[in-house]
């Protein structure tokens, strides 16, 4: 989280503000342990909130205008809650304007506000700085309006904002973990019922290492929407033999094996990824509950190969980080995390081996791509909250 003393003085300077101290809110980014591209198939995911995220300073206004200053972009933008813009401008403010309108539509009583937002999630690393922006600003606006923050409803508002104002047909994982995560735990989410379980992380001797390719995921939005459409087409074709299925979540590994011939290339591989990834995610949650880190690591490795060859959302940079990590002593397993086409990997690493693993991965990656990867170690952060004092 950014230093709130610095942010308060930036708030006063930017808005020429002399009222009572602005309130401070924080929402985290995330790293997904396993369950990739399963959320929009009504499946299971197992993400962890990070300790880094987006900090929002907020003071109410007497009108219905939202004035927002992005410290990282050095840009101030204004919009009016009563006259929504068209959205999809491609600017960072689409997320904020989108969530403000979605939240306003639900509670009907938002006040205008001055907002200052500042992040410390590495940008473009696929760690959901956008979901943190949506959840942090939505949380702030609801709190200023005196409304009770229903965290699941807030996550759904963030997802709706992304569909409408940004144009990505994302699932619910990123917003839900940013809003609802518990410290030191992964969040097992059933993305159909939205039932959640905090599964304690091994902690102590095992760390979660995030390695950033520093490659921007340029194709992410168009390819993401294509994958989602392929899954929907897969469901439609499988319904010929399995009329009761509503989503790929309803297809068991046995049913898939029996009816795979109904699916042409590449749909057969797309569906195989989702069906097997759902099973892996539930197995990983079970293994985590019994503290079996080796079993979780083996599932990471299988998940990555499935994303690489069947779902085809990896890239040479992600594959290299995974292969380098998997070759090191003390690494239980590594995989790409998030939407893919760049972004980051996640590895389970013995605490005692962390420095050696980072050094070996850094050297190997730099000698192939000429850039150093970024690293971040997390113990599992907490969901969105107001920071008092
Ligand atoms: C992105 C999306 F926003 C998530 O909803 C999820 O689908 C993820 O890609 C892939 O698992 O982060």
TrEMBL record:
Residues 10-60 form the Galactokinase N-terminal domain. Its EC number is 2.7.1.6. It comes from the Bacteria. PROSITE patterns: GALACTOKINASE, GHMP_KINASES_ATP. Keywords: ATP-binding, Carbohydrate metabolism, Cytoplasm, Galactose metabolism, Kinase, Magnesium, Metal-binding, Nucleotide-binding, Transferase. It holds the Pfam family GHMP_kinases_C. The record marks 30 as: Transition state stabilizer. Substrate binds at residues 36-39, 224. Residues 95-180 form the GHMP kinase N-terminal domain. The keyword Metal-binding applies. SUPFAM superfamilies: GHMP Kinase, C-terminal domain, Ribosomal protein S5 domain 2-like. GO terms for cellular component: cytosol. InterPro entries: Galactokinase, Galactokinase_bac, Galactokinase_CS, GalKase_N, GHMP_kinase_C_dom, GHMP_kinase_C_sf, GHMP_kinase_N_dom, GHMP_knse_ATP-bd_CS. The keyword Acyltransferase does not apply. Residues 284-365 form the GHMP kinase C-terminal domain. Pathway: Carbohydrate metabolism; galactose metabolism. ATP binds at residues 124-130. It is found in: Cytoplasm. One of its GO terms (biological process) is galactose metabolic process. The active site is at residue 174. Its main location: cytoplasm. Belongs to the GHMP kinase family. GalK subfamily. Catalyzes the transfer of the gamma-phosphate of ATP to D-galactose to form alpha-D-galactose-1-phosphate (Gal-1-P). This is Galactokinase.
């Amino acid at each position: 989280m950014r230093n709130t003393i610095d942010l308060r003085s930036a708030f006063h300077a930017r808005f020429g503000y002399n009222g009572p101290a602005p309130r401070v809110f924080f929402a985290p980014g995330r790293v997904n342990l396993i369950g990739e591209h399963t959320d929009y198939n009504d499946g299971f995911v197992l993400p962890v909130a990070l300790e880094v995220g987006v900090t929002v300073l907020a003071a109410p206004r007497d009108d219905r205008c939202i004035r927002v200053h992005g410290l990282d972009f050095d840009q101030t933008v204004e919009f009016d809650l009563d006259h929504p813009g068209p959205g999809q401008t491609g600017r960072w403010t689409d997320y904020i304007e989108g969530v403000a309108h979605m939240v306003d539509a639900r509670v009907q009583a938002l006040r205008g506000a001055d907002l200052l937002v500042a992040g410390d999630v590495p940008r473009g690393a696929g760690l959901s700085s956008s979901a943190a922006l949506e959840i942090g600003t939505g949380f702030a606006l609801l709190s200023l309006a005196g409304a009770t923050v229903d965290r699941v409803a807030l996550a759904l508002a963030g997802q709706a904002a992304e569909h409408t104002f940004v144009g990505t047909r994302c699932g619910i994982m990123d917003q839900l973990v940013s809003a609802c995560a518990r410290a030191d735990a992964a969040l097992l989410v059933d993305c159909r019922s939205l039932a959640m379980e905090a599964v304690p992380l091994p902690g102590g001797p095992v760390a979660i290492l995030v390695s950033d390719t520093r490659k921007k995921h340029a194709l992410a939005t168009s390819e993401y929407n294509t994958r989602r459409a392929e899954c929907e087409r897969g469901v439609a074709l499988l319904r010929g033999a399995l009329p009761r299925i509503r989503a790929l979540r309803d297809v068991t590994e046995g049913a898939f094996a029996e009816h795979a011939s109904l699916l042409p290339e590449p749909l057969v591989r797309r569906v195989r990824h989702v069906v097997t990834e759902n099973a892996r995610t539930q197995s990983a949650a079970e293994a985590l509950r019994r503290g079996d880190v080796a079993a979780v690591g083996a599932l990471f490795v299988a998940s990555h190969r499935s994303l690489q060859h069947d779902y085809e959302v990896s890239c040479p940079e992600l594959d290299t980080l995974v292969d380098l990590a998997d070759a090191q002593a003390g690494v239980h397993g590594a995989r790409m995390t998030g939407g893919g086409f760049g972004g980051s990997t996640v590895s389970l690493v013995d605490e005692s081996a962390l420095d050696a693993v980072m050094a070996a991965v850094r050297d190997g990656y730099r000698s192939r791509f000429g850039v150093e990867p970024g690293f971040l170690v997390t113990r599992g952060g907490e969901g969105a909250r107001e920071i008092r004092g």
